[in-house]
Amino acid sequence: MPEFTSGLRPVQAVQGRNAKFEVEVDGQPPPTITWYKGARELTDGPHYEMTREGNRYEEHQSAGLPTSCVVFVLVFNAWDSGCFQVHPEHQGLLRRGR
Prior knowledge:
By secondary structure, the chain is mainly beta. The protein has one helix spanning 57-62, and strands at 3-6, 19-26, 32-37, 40-41, 48-52, 67-73, 84-90, 93-94.
């Protein structure tokens, strides 16, 4: 089952600037990461950018280290305020994080 080794922390974002939300997740096989704002699934695009920090995903998994997963909110605005969540999943197993 996927495991959070470092969960989501509150972020104080500044309007007009980028905001960064980050978790560390561990699991074998490597989990698929899905980000949400409220009930809405986030996708890469002009306003949100999802990454696995440092492009070290395979290296970290082979060494048994957790992976840092990040969502960037590009140019944070008032309507971006709210609850961001991340759900790591693999082989039908899901763990929720807020």
